Amino acid sequence: MTKRPDLQGIRGLAIAAVIAFHLDGTAFPSGFIGVDMHILRAIRIFDGCDPIEGTGTQCQRLFRNFYMRRFKRIVPLYALLIVALAFIVPIFMFRPDVIKYCQDVIWAATFSTNIHSILEKTDYFHQLSTSGVLTHTWSLGVEIQYYFIVPLIVLAHRKLSETFRFSPLLVMLFIASLVYHLIASPKLAFNSLTARVWQFIAGGLAHEVSTSLQVFSWPKFKRSIKSIFKISPGLADQYVEIISDEKGTTDEDVEINDGPRTCKFWPIGTVASYLYGRGVADILSIILLVLVICPSIILPVSVYRVVAVLTTGVLLVLGDDECCQGFILSMRFLVYLGDISYALYLVHWPMIAIWKDYHDSIPLSLTGTVVCLGVSLVVSACIHHAIEQYFIRSKAVSVSALVGVLYITLVVSLHLDVPLKMNKSLQTAFRPELASAIEWNERESHNDYHKHRPFEECLDDLEVSHMSRGYVTSKEHFACVWKPRNSTGRIEILVLGNSISFIAIRILHSIIERNFPQIGLLRLFPNPSCAIIMPYTGYNCTDYLNSIPVLVNNMRPDITFTIFHEYFSDPLLREPLLNASTDAAAAGFIKFLQPISKGSRVLVLDEFYPSAYQQRQESVALTLHKRLIRNKPLDDLKMTYEFFSKRQSSYFARLDLLPFPNLIRHNISAAMCSEETGLCWWYNRRNMHSYFTDQDPVTKSLNYGISSLELISSSSVTNDLNYKWKQPSKNTSLQQTSSITLDSKQKWIQPSKNTSKWIVVTSIQSPTEDVKRLASYPDWTLVVVGDEKTSDDWNLPDVHYLSLETQAAMGFGSVQRLPTKSYTRKNAGYLYAIANGAEWIYDTDDDNKPFGKGLEQFEYSMNSSRGLRFVADGETNSTIQDTLFNPYRHFGRPDIWPRGFPLEHIKNHDHRDGSYRLCHEHRPPAVQQGIVQKDPDVDAIYRLLHAEPTSGLDESFNQFAPPVILAPGTYAPWNSQNTLFSRSAFFGLFLPTTVAFRVTDIWRSYFTQALLHAAGETVGFVPVNAIQRRNAHSYLKDFNDEIEVYDKSGEIVKFIDKWKCHAQTLDRCTIELAEEFAARGFWGNKDAQLVVHWVLDLQQIGYVFPAMRNNARSDNSIGNDAELLRNCRRAHVSFHDDLSLNTPRESRAAAKINNFGDLKEWCADSPSVKSKEWYFPTPRELTISTMKNKTLTDNHNTVAIITNNYQWKMGMGLLQRMYEANFAMLIFCGHYPKQDRNAHLNNYPDNMDKGDVKFPKLKRPISYIDLSNEEVHEGYFAYYCLAKVEEMKLQNVNGKIRNVFR
């Protein structure tokens, strides 16, 4: 008696498919069909017990022998495995895993793992990512359970055959089971015996057909068809003889006849015998191989199973003819793999599960794959030859006794908690400070959320079935409704999505419970494993998605959250977007969201985030739990933002196509990717909690949904929080009002004065003289914001005064959340001015006085400007220090720094050569800061060092210095005391409330600059236009209030310089950056929430955010040095207060004498000058001579231009000493090629400070303008220098510009 090699080959291919799937389910997603192939071969018993002619004794003997053989082959080895695991699992795995084993082994020991999965409603494919070592025993449970019902099937078949000529029982069972398999839920279709019976029967039918065709003829073929209904009696004795052979291997592994085989249809060795015999078998084998190794599942899972079963069945029939046994399935390797398949099936999964858990390797690494596969093969081969064969050949009584001992051992060990005690004794000690994090992540990693409600108060939703036309989600615990007991409003929220929405609602519930009493109802209506466009039909996703529009239309929620995990989302959303107008994925996305948007007041769409499932399959919480205990590093629990953005670039491009005005895109990735530039972490590095499970308010996972939830209490959602919206709105977010209308019951009517230019101040005093002066400007409208200490009768003609009552009546969500007794009440004034049509807002204080040109010093052009532009060290951003601009240095005071300038950069900071551009045309600045005379805005450190105790500071600045614009990529702090905002920058008026008074406007300046740069807008500084005399106060108190400025300014500059917005519009970027500021601790979470209301308030009053602009820094480019009429060119300016417009005559005279003295010393030291023959006048003679020269006495406010027609540096220091003290400033003009900062070249302007052995060194850095050779050739076009100097917009010059030629 010999084995059929092709049958063992099928078994080998089946186990190879299963192992491949378990090793890497991503590479071999359809490997699970190996189980279906094996089930088909599991039993062929019906042909041994004829229902009519067979005797009862014959059937009894047949069944007895069959079950004994099955028992000896399956049960002993199985019992040995589960007992061995009772002692192996505690050694290598953690306590939760040991507990899981102790729970699972009870079901596994009774061959009912599949029933356990059904009762627990767990998913087999999900369990593969857990540490369950007995997950694979479900298939043995199904097989053993079928063996128990076989006698019932045979008995029923026998009775029906006695009554009817042909019994259709088998065919009916086959069809009924197959139909149930196709319509049942995925979990039932996979685990239940009812859904697998058709596969067992298919194997029996295939064997019956094959045995009926041993001698082919048409009459025999007809009888083979009939035998499906009535089994031929002639084969009973043969089969009984075979299966009663205890010395054989298995009943499936033998041939029916011992004699020589012959081909039924064609002679052996002919071409036809291969082409029509083994060739067909090999083709079918290749089909099975293709199904197994296919890298993606392109058809429903049920189709794969049906194809696998039919193909395997045909192979069983063909293989009964030796000429039809294919070469592939008869290969020695596959045959041997089939021989050891049972041992290999038992061993391989525990090996993989333990390796994954111990080495934290999900998916398996290459090393893990090789080790697990190699060890499993070696151990299985040893078990097969040494143990399995021994059990098969042993007497039944001996095997039964051994099994009894093993089961008793298992029961006793479980009763005495041996595995748990053993695990506890072997547990690794961990650091005590990690106990809390370990406990948290352990609880979350083993939280079977699908088994219970997301939170206790979420109850059965009795209305949702009616509202969705009878649809019920596939998991009964998923859908629920929460109606807060202490609710003060009637706002309703609907949460839709797949499994991630179930997790998200726990966090949303926590936030709502603490912060939003206005919520009257929160409804959860998800369905697991569903995608938006191509739903997985096995989870009733199509019915679920079709029910959503019905539910939304009936419920009319105020806010609808759509939360779909990317892991289950359709890959079409990530396909390249080639044509937006014809893109099927975008159209499907819009089609899905359109009824939700129409039926909801606000639609919140959670954007995809850098999920760990993109790179690993294991829960991050579980990974953290294991690594924290084992003290393993956590550095790899992250994703690069570059990987995430590239992967999702097409998805975000499709989001930009969504046309819904009430859509809010919730950017979850911002918080995850804000801690470190370019990296997105999957856990909170402060408390070691995994994201999206942590509800601790100090962690960023709380930000999940919090910005969107701020919409709930915003006036853009509803003006009356108790008003229940019933009708959809055509425009729910923009341009609802154009101005603020105050209630007529208020104390007094606001004045009618309303211009396009507004001044905003806050005051707790009666109208000061400075406030009255501001109110007198005819082209300006003044609004004063009051506070608790402001007098109730505050009044001033033509001034808009906003009392606290008036502010509350305006209905702005952000104003309602402003603290009292706070400088940030100014936010109310900003919104008031914007709502009343402001185009310009001057931000100042009630003790600030315009000076000189005053407000006219600012530039009010909306289209084009010209002048100096400060860039970051030429065209490279090498260091953060290069990006910083000190406005006081520009205006002649390098010894002073503004409040908020990073202290760590003060000592070595300068505006190095190459940092300026002179542009003929550029965009005017969106924000302009004016310099303040006498007591400028400096920090407490400078005041403590330099201010007088009673009179404060008395500082002045160079009044020739021109205005300057800071290009994108450069930064300077600015305040709220003398600042002009154009409409394009109104979004940046927001003052944060969670930081100190001395910090709020500085943080605003950095926050706004980052956003302005994203829109291609800039900040500018203008010369002195205000004066301030501060009251004496405690500088030490200021110092304490500014600690945060000293500590974090540099960190903020470093952050915003690298920050890139993930969103596509500036309003969303504003919210995103606010959340990142909160996440980094620059301000509190309340400010992040307040910014959401601020944005919504701006949208409510019709403010339109500027458009985003990419590559704004390219505006800094100077182009080709030789180009004629360049727009921007290199330039440099250097101003000093010792030679300003207000420099005393005595000081200027002293400077002249000192310069002359330098020249005398130079002449004495110069080897090429016969200084001894020179006569040098005395100081008195020099003064008299100078007084007689009108050029040297009347041009102190005149600019001297020195043109260079070649890049000489010689004589620059000499010219400085000759002319500097006599003019407002010297400007060198010529062509000076750009040099490498690291190259030691002598060309101008490099190394200018080193001078020359024949000429004196520079007295101070020079000011220059670079022209092309064509523009200054031979001096013929020196007038071009005059034009460029005029473009610099120097201040307080008399317009008569002299030229000195070299």
Automatic annotation (TrEMBL):
Coiled coil: none
InterPro entries cross-referenced by the UniProt entry: Acyl_transf_3_dom, STL-like
Origin organism lineage: Eukaryota, Metazoa, Ecdysozoa, Nematoda, Chromadorea
Protein's gene: WBGene00095359
Protein name: Acyltransferase
Domain of life assignment: Eukaryota
Protein's organism: Pristionchus pacificus
One Gene Ontology molecular-function label: acyltransferase activity, transferring groups other than amino-acyl groups
